[in-house]
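PROTEIN DESIGN WORKSHEET
SECTION A - STRUCTURE
LENGTH: 162
TOKENS:
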């Protein structure tokens, strides 16, 4: 996959060894509050890893899932991209483990991911779908230059676009 490395972080593929981290992230109330994670069983997470272990960053695969990690590989969060040129957009989802929040990690890695996305897909909108009460996420995406577009009531999400 395209290597993406920032000052402190990198994006890498999931491996079987990441099961415990992904499960703990999905079971963390702070991380899960505004997500639609319905199945946190080991079986489901194993399947998720098997499906996405070879994902290529910003390829034309629709759903791409990666880990955000320190340079030594230790995971600190997850990144999901929905690449949908037919809908003229790439939708971005990010979760940083509670322990690592408010250290500028989400902003650091997304700045690099968004730059690359704009280079590969200059005509596509970059989108974040955010629960109206998710203030940290709203502030994060505003800081990254996203602007509020509309409230998608069917999914109770604010649509932010850059
Ligand atoms: C939203 C989230 C990814 C932010 O990650 P983070 O690494 O803590 O964010 P950063 O440290 O890079 O913060 C960047 C900016 O976002 C805003 N921000 C982040 N967390 C915030 C909080 N708890 N309250 C208010 N603003 C916040 C601030 O503007 C911050 O800049 P500042 O620290 O200079 O004030 C993280 O809180 C998270 O994983 N939440 C749970 C999962 C989630 O809801 N994901 C969003 C789905 S789209």
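SECTION B - SEQUENCE
RESIDUE ASSIGNMENT:
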């Amino acid at each position: 996959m395209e290597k993406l490395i920032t000052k402190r972080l990198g994006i890498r593929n999931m491996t079987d060894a990441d099961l415990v981290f992904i499960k703990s992230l999905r079971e963390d109330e702070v991380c899960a509050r505004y997500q639609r994670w319905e199945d946190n069983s080991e079986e489901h997470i194993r399947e998720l890893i098997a499906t996405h272990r070879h994902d290529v960053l910003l390829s034309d695969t629709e759903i791409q899932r990666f880990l955000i990690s320190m340079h030594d590989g230790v995971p600190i969060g997850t990144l999901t991209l929905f690449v949908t040129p037919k809908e003229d957009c790439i939708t971005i989802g990010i979760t940083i483990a509670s322990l690592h929040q408010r250290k500028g990690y989400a902003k650091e890695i997304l700045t690099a991911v968004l730059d690359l996305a704009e280079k590969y897909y200059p005509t596509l909108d970059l989108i974040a779908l955010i629960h109206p009460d998710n203030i940290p996420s709203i502030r994060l995406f505003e800081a990254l230059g996203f602007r509020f577009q509309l409230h998608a009531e069917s999914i109770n999400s604010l649509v932010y676009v850059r």
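SECTION C - NOTES
The longest strand covers residues 75-84.
Helices lie at 19-27, 29-32, 42-52, 105-120, 135-143.
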